[in-house]
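Methods — Computational structure assignment.
A single polypeptide chain was analysed. Its primary sequence is given first, followed by the predicted tertiary structure written as structure tokens.
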Amino acid sequence: MTRTSSTTATDVPATYQPTHDRPWAVWLHGGAILALGVLAIAAPFAALHWGVRVAPQGFTWDFSMGLGYGALAMVALQFALTGRLRWITHPFGADIVYLCHRYLSWAALGLMLAHFALLYVFHEPALGVLNPLQARWELTAGRLALVCFVGLVVTSQFRGLLRLRYEYWRGLHLGLAIVGFAAAIAHVLGVGNLTNTPGKRALWLGATLAWAVILAYTRLW
């Protein structure tokens, strides 16, 4: 009798392993994605640093504006993390990408709340009136964005406790994300504190366009 042998993964020559699955390629791919993520978050601050400077308005005011700017950059990144883009999930796995999305969402919401809290404590007159019929539209857009993102995180974290069926939660999640991001972009452009040049406005309009392309690609195809 001849003895049959089973082939294991270790028996397969390296030449049969796809190049993109080899350890060095996975490490290189993952490192490039992490670098792109850092650059995406840092890009708005680079535009602020090398663009036309805004006159300082005091530490608490400037720090609050920076927090809001950083929060929006992190929110824009979320659509790529949840877009089921294989080139992002391949080196890490879908579970790690979604876990990163979850933690970054909490971090972005924390920055938004800190942005609002600093203005409320130290610069309350700048917030205007709460009545949306009387308030400036860009301030109402900011409040709408904050409510949407709070709703996103709460309904995601406590979906079981709230007894939301998955299909309902998913539709709600997508709707809140779209409305919240659009309102946040409108808020930043409308207030204009850190978008006082065409280049800075183009940066956020470009982020909005990229968001729309990712959304259309992942939801329509």
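Note: Confidence is low (pLDDT under 50) at residues 1-12.
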